[in-house]
User: Fold this.
Amino acid sequence: MLGSSVLVALTAAAGAIASPLDLITRGTPAGTGTNNGFFYSFWTDGAGQVEYNNGAGGSYDVTWRNVGNFVAGKGWNPGASRVVTYNGTWNGASVNSYLSVYGWTKNPLIEYYVVESFGTYNPSSGAQKLGSIQSDGSTYDIYRTQRVNQPSIEGTSTFYQFWSVRQQKRVGGSVTMQNHFDAWEKAGLKLGTHNYQILATEGYQSSGSAQITVQQS
Assistant:
C-alpha cells in the first residue's frame, strides 16, 4: 500500500498535475471502517480520481482514473491464518495494478502482499528471491523489500514488505494464508501482531476498475 517500494522505485513519476476536478472522490470516503460485517480500508495519495464503494457482504467495487497510488478492499481486522476466498472482475491486467491479499502487522511493522494477479509491472522486479512455495494450485515466489520513511499504519516509518507472487495469475479462488506465513517464517521473514487483512485492489499511475467479493472459507 501506500505505494509499494518496487512500484515507486522503478516506475517513473507522473509528469502531469491533476486538475482540481480530478481530485474529487465520490462513493465511500478514504479511510477505514466496518461494513456489513467486514472491515474495509481505502487509502489514496490524492492524485487522480478514485471512486470506492462498499457493497453487500464482502463485496466492493472501485474505479480509478489517472491515479498516483491507491489501495482499497474488504476483509478483516485483525488478520489471521485464514483461507481467503474471493471472486469478481479486475480490469487491471493491462495497466499498473495488483490484486492481492494485503495486510499489516505491528511489532515488527510489516506490510505484506500475497499477489494473485498483477498488470504491466511485476512487483518482484529488482527484488531478491528468497524462495518459493506451492499453494492453491500455483507456485508463489517469495521476496522481501524495504520502505524507508514512508506512510504506514503507524505514520511515516521504515519497514519491510513481504511478498508472495503467484506465477499463474488468476482472479478468483482461495488463498491459504497459513501456507504463506509458514513459508515466510522459513525464509526468515518474521511477522508481528496482526492488524488488518483485506482482499485489495491497488493501482499506480493508471486507470482501471474492479468488482470483488471476499469471504472466509
